[in-house]
Amino acid sequence: MTVAFWCVLIALFLPYVCTGVAKFSQGKFGPRQNHDPRGFLSTVDGVAKRADNAQLNSFEVTPAFAAAVIIADIVGNAQPVTLDVLAVLFITSRLLYIICYLADWAMLRSIVWVIGMGLIASFFFVSM
């Protein structure tokens, strides 16, 4: 199992870290809210709302990252260490993205998002 594949697993779980922050940062989530957690999350604001937004974005980008890693591995033209480094950089960019979202640093968050998307594209370019 390569580092890049482990990074896919990490990427799959990052949205749930954001979900936890969204649900529990305001101290209002409990058994009653668990009957309709999406309804509850639609009522939060502040850092909880930003965490929910980060969660949604993480769910959107993870399939592209996973596909890029898998396709690059199947094509096999790139050195495995290159794919591992790109994957770690992508996970780092996602962690920075989440931090920027929670801190409400909108411009920096957008820059980090672009870097992450560039990293996804780079899996294809290094595999040519």
Automatic annotation (TrEMBL):
Sorted UniProt keywords: Membrane, Transmembrane, Transmembrane helix
UniProt GO cellular component terms: membrane
Keyword set includes Lipoprotein: no
Keyword Transmembrane helix: yes
InterPro entries to which the protein is assigned, alphabetical: MAPEG-like_dom_sf, Membr-assoc_MAPEG
Transmembrane segments: 85-103, 110-127
Pfam families: MAPEG
Cellular localization per UniProt: Membrane
PANTHER family: BLR7753 PROTEIN, INNER MEMBRANE PROTEIN
The protein, known as: MAPEG family protein
Organism: Pseudomonas endophytica
Biological classification of the source: Bacteria, Pseudomonadati, Pseudomonadota, Gammaproteobacteria, Pseudomonadales
